[in-house]
Specification:
With 95 residues, this protein is mainly α. The chain contains 3 helices and no strands.
Length: 95
Amino acid sequence: MTGNKPSTATEWIDPDDAPDLSTPAYQAQLDATPVRRSRPKSAAPKAPVGFGLSAERVERIRASGPGDTARVEKVPRDGFGPRTEGTPAKPGGRS
């Protein structure tokens, strides 16, 4: 039988031995580090659409393989064509 091995060293480090992060050297290093909290905003965000499809149709779309979302999104794009110059996008996606 194989035994469990500790994943890290069991050496104790006293919390009082931690470096002082308020020193100028550490402050400069912390200030120079960029803060990234989330994904960047998209230049062309997607608008949520609320309509239902029959369960049979959804099953057929999903059974057709990976990339089903992209194929479903392609249908209206092909049907309506690309947005032409001078046709602004409507806020909220509604007319």
